[in-house]
Amino acid sequence: MTLRRRLLYRLLLMLLISALAAVGACAADDVPEVPVGPDGYPDRELVAGRQVYIERCANCHGNDGSGGRGTRIADGRMVAQYPDIGAQVEIVAAGVRSMPAFAEVLDPAEIAAVVRYTREVL
Ligand code: HEC
């Protein structure tokens, strides 16, 4: 392979990677951002929870939590349904009917963070 051709391939590969990254970023765009707190920064646990939500939950529950394959979990529904946050954590860890269990794939801190995100941001 000539040097020119090799450079061309490398350029094409870089273009492809940045195009894919852009698509990924767009997909997460309408997942609500964590608002900044009184100290001028968003709560770090909620930011981590949003990331878990994007990676693990949004495809079924919708980017904004309005539902899809999974139920609607936005607009304060979770706090109303599970006044005790522990009950909601339990559902996410153990699953229910067609809702998958996450205890094996997420650690307790990630589950706690994503549950807070659904209660406080969605
Ligand atoms: C494969 C699709 C799918 C994924 C991925 C998924 N869920 Fe679900 N989820 C469901 C379905 C379907 C239900 C309704 C289960 C039922 O009651 O029959 C549900 C129910 C729930 C409930 C109970 C809602 C209620 O109305 O009581 C919570 C809380 C929940 N999901 C949170 C999450 C979180 C947090 C994640 C990501 C860590 C997640 N889900 C990922 C499909 C999914």
Written account of the structure:
The chain is elongated, with a radius of gyration of 19 Å. The mean pLDDT is about 90. Helix 2 (about 45-60) crosses helix 5. It is mostly helical and about 120 residues long. It folds into two domains: about 1-30; about 30-120, Cytochrome c-like domain (Cytochrome Bc1 Complex, Chain D, domain 2, Orthogonal Bundle). It has helices spanning about 5-30, 45-60, 75-80, 85-95, 110-120. The chain binds heme C. Heme C (HEC) binds near residues 59, 70, 73, 96 and 99.
CATH topology of the largest domain: Cytochrome Bc1 Complex, Chain D, domain 2
Topology as a string of helices (H) and strands (E): HHHHH
Q: For this structure, what is the CATH homologous superfamily of the largest domain?
A: Cytochrome c-like domain
The total domain count is 2
Helix content: 55-70%
Report the top-level CATH class of the largest domain. Answer: Mainly Alpha
Shape verdict? elongated
Low-confidence sequence ranges: none
Give the SSE layout:
Blueprint: H1 3-29, H2 44-61, H3 77-81, H4 85-94, H5 108-120
Bound molecules: heme C.
Concise account of the structure shown:
By secondary structure, the chain is mainly α. It is built from five helices and no strands. It has two domains: 1-30; 31-120, Cytochrome Bc1 Complex, Chain D, domain 2 (Orthogonal Bundle), CATH 1.10.760.10.
Give structural attributes.
Cytochrome Bc1 Complex, Chain D, domain 2, 5 helices, 122 residues, 0% strand, mainly alpha, binds heme C, 60% helix
